[in-house]
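cache lookup: miss for this entity combination. No prior model stored, computing from scratch. Input as submitted by user K.M.:
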Amino acid sequence: MVETIVSGEILRTIARAIVALVSECRIHFLSKGLHSRAVDPSNVAMVIVDVPKDSIESYRVDVEKTIGVDINRIFEISKTIGSKDLVEVSILDETSLRIKFGSVEYNIALIDPSAIRKEPKIPELNLPAKIVLDAGEFKKAISATEKISENVVLKSDKHGFTIEAKGDIERITFTMTGSELIEFNGGEARSMFSIDYLREFCKVAGAGDLLTISLGTNYPGRFSFELVGGKVRVEYILAPRVES
Amino acid sequence: MVETIVSGEILRTIARAIVALVSECRIHFLSKGLHSRAVDPSNVAMVIVDVPKDSIESYRVDVEKTIGVDINRIFEISKTIGSKDLVEVSILDETSLRIKFGSVEYNIALIDPSAIRKEPKIPELNLPAKIVLDAGEFKKAISATEKISENVVLKSDKHGFTIEAKGDIERITFTMTGSELIEFNGGEARSMFSIDYLREFCKVAGAGDLLTISLGTNYPGRFSFELVGGKVRVEYILAPRVES
Amino acid sequence: MVETIVSGEILRTIARAIVALVSECRIHFLSKGLHSRAVDPSNVAMVIVDVPKDSIESYRVDVEKTIGVDINRIFEISKTIGSKDLVEVSILDETSLRIKFGSVEYNIALIDPSAIRKEPKIPELNLPAKIVLDAGEFKKAISATEKISENVVLKSDKHGFTIEAKGDIERITFTMTGSELIEFNGGEARSMFSIDYLREFCKVAGAGDLLTISLGTNYPGRFSFELVGGKVRVEYILAPRVES
């Protein structure tokens, strides 16, 4: 039996992070907290979500449990809940998830976890460049580039961190020097990524949330968000595109 | 001759209540106040609107008068008027309605009342259950159910009032006990209704408005809204759907 | 070489004024300030934009310069800039315009000015009626008329200024007497104009902006907006429609 109480904001953050890539997923109620990961249907991006049990208002898990859920539907429901509202999320039998807040109770059929695509192994990546910045800044930059291109080049060297996009008749460049970044190691890196994916990742975050970007050269990038005041950790790993 | 002055909010409330069901209607300027009623084209729902003359800023009706109007158009116009703005609504001849506020004056052709569908008789209903609640709460519940079903079951018994909807893979239940309701007689009732209609009814109201629901079993329900601080009374009667 | 610094609001206002009529235009960096004018593809309306150099934070123009630009794209970019943000707008070579603010830099290819439609001569108009009013009031009136007609009659005589539109079953009349207008000479005039154009013109302005309308009878009208606290002057000249 699993009985938890979380805030509306945490439930929404978890669901939004995952729907960026898949509509069904497995969720693990581990003794140390909640965990989920999934790869998108094109095998281009992976999401890893971790919520330690200390971030959860009340977390009672007798035996560790894995369920399959329609995460899209849970995201829709979570949007109707106030950020500070407390929500009971429970599994009382093998067939349904109960989400209860205020006077309303949802009972949602579970999906057999074995019917959901196998979870990915988390790759070990050796990434020389590390950039820490406000997620809101990154979001604004990505949203500007999407008007003119499908791809964006992320670049790091001792001078700073650069986001670059090229359209048919224009070019956009965002430049942040080390002193304008929250943390920066000046490592050398340059990789091109799909703007569509980056924009999906950014939806989970807002101004004030911390984003750590780890980059190599023509290599996958890691985008780690610290959300809900550090209570929820969402990490995306994204395959690079080949520059022509 | 009819010369009245109403607030923008009252004009908009009257118009919105009626457009939920029909686009043309009769309006009666009676000596005791304004009255209108209509049945929707599918004969499933009836709306009854009453505004006593004391709710109206200025109400001069020499001889009682019935007009036919394009209520849709009046609703559109009313949306451009501030809630507290005073509006002159007058009938100066047999052909047009004049709506005047600030520096703007609308003259709208009247419709021959005999060309508008006959008005319904208001049925006498013996409804055992009476539930009084905040219209905003009911609105939120209906808006949650519409995502998963076309129908909703409203249920009352000594334990409380319940709103229930069933989708293919989930179920939503709203439960309010007697102490959570503004007024409740614990009467036994259970009827199923179309969510589309209930959602249309709710558009007229917001948080803070009083809604009185009267129910029977597999029987029409009555939904009475007290609007604009009690100045406007809007009542809907809705036929039940048969549960399969 | 041209190097200027303007506020986001001024850049957006210039761009929005011009996109109302064309998507590409010439911009002249004159020693006295910035100037642009264009006629829409149907030859019905003309826009004239003037920003004196004193309205511009910093204005360094060594040699007067004319460029061709995709003004649509500049408008899109300007919408992402805060009103009070300072923007560097520079021409460093013959091929591109640089727009730089905060950490972002756009480089946009210029268009050969000779490939853009020839600029109109500004006609001399002898217009007997002059009406000065709040642009927000005019905007509201035009937005109300667009629901019922394609054309609007603007009328002036000693009694005041009137905006009139007729639909199939209704008529709207806005009336402002001399004392309700900011300035009014009571001149006799009556011309009909396309609502589509007037609505486009109004987008550039808001409540608090000054609009001067100059009218004749069945004659072009002039609509002059004082924007951004008088720093930007946008004038539209619009051909009349023939009343049937």
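stored under new cache key. Residues 129-238 of chain C form a domain with the Proliferating Cell Nuclear Antigen fold (CATH 3.70.10.10).
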